[in-house]
Design goal:
This protein is an alpha+beta fold. The protein contains 3 helices and 16 strands. The protein has 2 domains: 30 residues; 203 residues, Rieske [2Fe-2S] iron-sulphur domain (Rieske Iron-sulfur Protein). It is globular, with a radius of gyration of 19 Å.
Length: 244
Amino acid sequence: MSDKPGRRRFLGGCSALLGMLAATRSARSTGELTPFAPVMLVDQRDRPLNIGSLAVRTEYIFQYPFISTPCFLIDLDTELPGGEELSTKDGRVYRWGGGVGPRRSVVAFSAICAHRLSHPTRSASFIGYRPRAVGYMNSERKVSRRADVIQCCSEQSVYDPAHGARVLGGPAPQPLAAIQLEHRDDGHLYAVGVYGGDLFDKYFERFSHRLVLEYETFDVQAPVGETTRVMRGDEFTRHLVTCG
């Protein structure tokens, strides 16, 4: 005799899983939040990161949501209420949530450039946060100078982290994907999702062979787990490339 209750539970579980996957695909198709299991940010001794210990206007790197996808963490030292309406390359609209922390000044973005997928590696990084003023060609093809930007020296794309990493200049077709942070009542900082135009599929397709060597695992698309370490950008990579 068949186990009908067991079969119903199995089919119900399958339906729930398919529903969750469909919801994830829908979120990614609209630019809205793609949730992942909460991941606590920790320091180099694996202690919960004290958000007050972050040096202001300084680039930090952590891996999220996969073990080989780097992200920027920056305390911009000013309140960032968010609310900017942004759009992806294919016109999907989303709203940036702003900063977190006691002063709402801490932000996080995927460190994968939206143009040619340049990203920080252990040996070198052509993309990074610039606390001092840098020159670039703005969207009106005029020379501008700004501090507190994220700049990619591969093709001179420039993003504004105080406004959802919107594009200020260069060939990037969309903002950097945003990382949803939560600063909880216990003082701990968590990454809980990604929204905007994430480029993970293209990133893995293009760089998987090199990532296997860099991260010493074939499973470079593995989730980061319960915690992810935060380190200064100049400690994560040996050579921070500037644009001259």
